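A note from the maintainers: we've had questions about how concatenated examples are separated. There is no special marker in the raw files; a new sequence line simply starts the next protein. For clarity in this README we add a label.
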Amino acid sequence: MIPTQTLARFIHAQEKQVPQSTGELSDLLTSIALGVKIIARLVQTAGFKGLQGYTGRVNVQGEKTHLLDEEADQVLMELLGSSGHFGLLVSEERDSVVAAKEGRRDAKYVVAFDPLDGSSNIGTNIPVGTIFTIFRKVDPDKEAQHDDFLQKGRSIVAAGYSIYGAKVSFVYSCGAGVHGFTLDPDVGEFVLTEEKIVIPDKGKIYSVNEGYYPIWDEPTIKFIESIKKEDEERGTPYSGRYVGSLVSDFDRTIRKGGIFLHPANKKRERGKLRLLYECMPLAFIAEQAGGRAVDGTCDILDIKPQNIHERCPFIAGGKYEIDWFMRVMAETRG
């Protein structure tokens, strides 16, 4: 029997609750979901299709690109660029903004995405994923402009991510809660499995790459030491969990609670993650789930990007842990 609450039906049901809706955003989300299905198949078959290695090229981030990075990028560029609803697109794998293949002057939106987050883990059976964020054009009467991407996260229209692991997940929000779907391989459809995901206010898990401990700043070290210290009243120590795949660590955090940290360090003063298509969409999801995401000084969604590939520290989790982290930052920095 075909499930009744598929992603497409859920999206269109939400659309009906917005009287002024034109259906464009619904089409865009279903196009992204189709891209996710195709990428999921590429990930599953990469081992025997020769897609696990490097391309020999370096992207704008200065990182070696994987064959699967480029395959996933091509899939999303083709599907979204031909939808007619986007004027411009930004991908982690592209140096600059890309004009949609069939972009129209009256297209309402621009989209930025990381086509295959965590691709260095391909071949190790660690989950990887896709992250996306959608903005409405600043001026609806003009063609899409580069500056349409340089908006604060408070202006995000929709954002989400997928995870390619033991199951294929699709999690998204249009500003009315966070909803999770799981790909049913029998029917080839995403099925609603978690409606209105809510992050626990207080958790028991912290997640961070402690290999960078020697080059963290003093406030970060102090916070991690405090969360590992035995304190019955505070409920510490927390358990340490770190996969090393952004989407996986973040997904666990919004479901189980606690805190995920990808902070700055002495070698990377603005961190490693990209603000526009990694930090901002996940911060949007975190807030919609009742949590919070910060860079150590302010909320991620209050930062206005200065360029499309700007980097940013990223700390996300439940309100209790993020408030605690920010207090330590303020107290230690004086």
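[label: protein 2]
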Amino acid sequence: MRRIVTLPDSSSGAALHYNALEALYRSAPVNGLFDSMLEITGEGQSRIEFTVSSAAHHAAGAAHGTIYFKMLDDAAFYAANSLVTDRFLLTTSFNLHFTKPVREGKVVAEGHWVSGKRRVFVAESRLVDAEGDEIGRGTGTFMKSRIALSGLDGYKLPKS
């Protein structure tokens, strides 16, 4: 089910936080291994568009589960962290379900927050292939860490 969201004004605190989270995603060294782009689409929502190539295949010629996990976890994580402006969240558990193999092409990971607003957050995500078929889904639990977002080099808020 798609949710309709209204994005905040680009100068609002929420929009600045979303942009800083997107910069944080781009700054993570692991994301240099993937042709992917994160967009925070609204409060508690994220979208990652990525490309699956043969470099991510297992021996039987389809995408290895590691790419499913990585993109599902990231989409759920960033959906949850869009609600938290002071601390970096940590994944404490993640369940995933593979529903269809994918060999190559564009895939979208959609994440949305489900519950929690203090210390522990639950978010879900799903993967959709270029044909519009769901190929995987997951649910994660995330908790606030002691790591301040403002202390992370990749989290860039404009100077006031």
